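Checklist before submission:
- one chain only
- standard amino acids only
- sequence pasted in full

Submission:
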Amino acid sequence: MTEFKYKFQMYRHLQANIGNIYAEARQAADEIGVPKELRGKFGLTGAVSGCPSPLRRDIIEASEKGATEVVPLAKLVDEIREIVKDVYGDEYDAAPITTCEAGLWATFDALFTPPMMGRGDNYRARYIAPLEKHMHHQGSYGRPFPGRFKDIFADRGSTAGELGFYGKRQNNLDTVIVPLPGARYDVHGIKYHPVPLLTGVDPQAAREKIAATAQTHAAMLTGITSLGYDTPGYGYGTKDDNGTPVLQKVLAEVAHQYDLPYVVDNAWGLPFVGHDPRKTGADVIVYSMDKATGAATSGLIIGKEEFMVPIRRALGMHGDRYGTTASYGKAAYVTFDPGKEALLTQIQALKVLRDKPEILIRPVDDLEKIIREEIETLPARLREGIMISKSYNSGAVEINYEGTWKDGKLGIPVFSIEDMYAGTNLFQTGLSQMGVIPTIAYDGNIFISPGLGTTDEEGMLMEERARVAVRAQVRLIEIVCKYAGLI
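Returned file contents:
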């Protein structure tokens, strides 16, 4: 076993042995019995945009039935609004949209940016975003502040300049990025980059820091945003007696102290079952409805009516000028109108979440059991420090291994999100060599969920398939750790 003194030496050795790791991964796929007829056709999550899950039978049937009927789209939108109000109350409203990213774009522009029209020079606006995972979503709509974060998104994506991340920045808007107390931002990966390691986040200390930051930028501050997840690896492991992440509650408190909206990016989340805005204090939540929820590709914005009015106006859903509660008019973001079939599948998915949430909860319970059993097959040296958490919000199970890096020892290799975009995240690319479609597996976190060839038409887990996929990921961890000098 080759032992390394420094992190960069370990990652350099992994880079030099990618071919060997791939060869062992392919051999391991045969040894653990990954079915040849399934290779490339099943995987560890159906909740990523690049390869979404097949639709459940009830979702397909609802879409097919509605597709043969004459139904005004405004009627379907109002049905979505009614379901949301059934659960959250009349003070909440909703607006379907093409994607979660489109929802963030329209929401931030409606609520965070300064006005563009009228005489006089424009002013600058700023919103606060904690330095957490997936910052290229919720944190990329303004110019990064302070300056040390100016290139934080430089390698995320394949297009630079105006047609890349820089082009997402909105009118005179800045993003104030705030590192979280208790988090670590160590440098890891073959594509060596700082990564957010968030299991140690202190939400009360974070409140004080966010509040101080808000006070500093109060003259220009227009909002606060964060993720809506609820697991330790995302920084939301500390919960109150009701199971609500404390960090989200304190972010809402600071936002409301300054009379500002708190906008939550809950792309990989479930309405009703997961993040509850009545408990966290969130004013607007944006969902990707084709991820955990299981609808066709589309997004959904849910929020308090006060903030939904300008968002719905921007989408052309606010109503005709002579007075209606809904319409399909032309507005700034009419380009984000979802289609009829997307609306039909959203309605069915929301009805199931409202009336039969166990359909989405049970597969998570079954998957967690499999993951815990398979992780136990790892050598003891690797198991120590692994934390497994299930999330009904995301319909997923989180494997977090930040804890393997303790007492100055090297742990299970951490691949940065830059590794994913560079194609050097071995926990993803190695899995593809085994014929298993990979999941989100960076920043010391592996997020596994049902759906991608591992559930039946009713959404129930096919345990044998799911176990083989999980077993492949666990075996790959072991192979990579061998070349990392850990075993």
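Reviewer check: The chain has a mean pLDDT of 95.
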